[in-house]
């Protein structure tokens, strides 16, 4: 029994010592907790607009929470007169009260052009800088009726190897590291804008690239000039498109698309017959963008007053060496020491116009 009593006393003494230590530590925080409780009960705002509220309160709050009012309460003097200074009430942040609290709406971004030309083409991923494909340049068909035992005629054909070089399209912007860390939405907007800018340039290169320097060999510079096979008299714009489609079809490769400027497409859409009826359908009708059974693509990348028709799926191929990619780096000038970053948008593509004679381009009638 003596051993048990001594063991219990030993543990009891240890617990009492630990409780005394905790009490001593708690007493150190008592003034701080008391001050917090006092401010919460009185609704006091902190001077810097932190934990307890905004930068400045109402006039009544400024008076009741001022040091002069505290001194007046503690003095217990009923007849004392005190002067209190308060800030004017305006919309300014340092006024007697923050009366103006604006709402934050979504950012207004610059409009983005709808991209369409890439969707017309056959797109092939590649892993090399250059792409080669054989192109047939000659086909002499000598097929003919042959008499029994006679020598059969021989046909011939020739090929040449074509090489398509991929080109780099790129642009970049500068931003501070802090703003990207603090505003992830802004970083996403920058990335999207850089990608969109690349695709805009790509669309222009697909149509109008002249193949010199780092330009792609675009479709229009290599296409065949429109020469009306029907020799129509005073054709309208729809007539011109119909004749151009026939010219493409006469190359034995069927055209599957029409590229127009939105202004020209709208003019065609608003053409009327002699009775005043819209030729392509009433304004309230959901009219698909189709002429002569071929898809119409209206894009501002196409110059107004001109057109392009052709076999986009079989006649041209876009080679993706590297899709639009965003890179961020401090390795530019003194960017590292200034906490700046360069945000780069880059892609590598090549364009092979495989059937230039089947693409027809020209000017629309006024």
UniProtKB/TrEMBL annotation:
Chief location category: virion
Q: Which residues form a coiled coil?
A: none
- Kindly list the places in or outside the cell where this protein is found, as annotated in its UniProt entry: Virion
The membrane-spanning stretches of this chain are: none
Domain of life, per the record? Bacteria
Annotated signal peptide: none
Q: Which Pfam families match?
A: Phage_capsid (PF05065)
Domain Phage capsid-like C-terminal, by residue range, is 110-363
Matches recorded under SUPFAM superfamilies: Major capsid protein gp5 (SSF56563)
Protein name per UniProt:
Phage major capsid protein
Q: Which organism is it from?
A: Croceicoccus marinus
| Biological classification of the source | Bacteria, Pseudomonadati, Pseudomonadota, Alphaproteobacteria, Sphingomonadales
């Amino acid at each position: 029994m003596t051993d048990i009593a001594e063991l219990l006393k030993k543990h009891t003494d240890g617990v009492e010592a630990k409780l005394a230590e905790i009490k001593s530590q708690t007493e150190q925080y008592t003034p701080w907790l008391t001050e917090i409780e006092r401010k919460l009960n009185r609704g006091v705002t902190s001077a810097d607009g932190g934990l307890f509220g905004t930068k400045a309160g109402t006039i009544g709050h400024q008076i009741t929470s001022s040091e002069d009012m505290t001194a007046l309460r503690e003095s217990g003097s009923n007849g004392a007169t005190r002067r209190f200074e308060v800030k004017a009430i305006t919309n300014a942040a340092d006024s007697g009260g923050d009366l103006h609290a604006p709402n934050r709406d979504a950012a207004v971004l610059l409009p983005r052009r709808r991209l369409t030309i890439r969707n017309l083409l056959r797109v092939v991923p590649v892993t090399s800088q250059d792409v080669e494909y054989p192109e047939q340049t000659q086909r002499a068909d000598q097929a003919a009726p042959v008499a029994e035992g006679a020598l059969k005629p021989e046909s011939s054909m020739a090929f040449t190897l074509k090489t398509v070089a991929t080109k780099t399209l790129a642009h970049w912007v500068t931003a501070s590291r802090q703003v990207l860390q603090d505003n992830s939405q802004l970083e996403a907007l920058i990335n999207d804008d850089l990608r969109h800018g690349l695709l805009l340039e790509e669309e222009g290169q697909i149509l109008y690239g002249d193949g010199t320097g780092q330009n792609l060999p675009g479709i229009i510079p290599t296409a065949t000039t429109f020469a009306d096979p029907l020799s129509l008299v005073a054709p309208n714009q729809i007539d011109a498109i119909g004749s151009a489609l026939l010219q493409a079809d006469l190359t034995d490769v069927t055209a599957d698309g029409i590229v127009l400027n939105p202004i020209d497409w709208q003019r065609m859409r608003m053409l009327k017959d002699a009775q005043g009826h819209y030729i392509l359908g009433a304004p309230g009708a959901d009219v698909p963008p189709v002429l002569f059974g071929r898809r119409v693509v209206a894009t501002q990348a196409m110059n107004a007053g001109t057109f392009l028709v052709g076999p986009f799926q079989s006649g041209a191929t876009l080679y993706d060496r590297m899709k639009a990619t965003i890179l961020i780096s401090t390795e530019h000038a003194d960017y590292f020491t200034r906490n700046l970053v360069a945000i780069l948008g880059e892609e590598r593509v090549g364009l092979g116009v495989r059937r230039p004679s089947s693409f027809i381009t020209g000017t629309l009638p006024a």
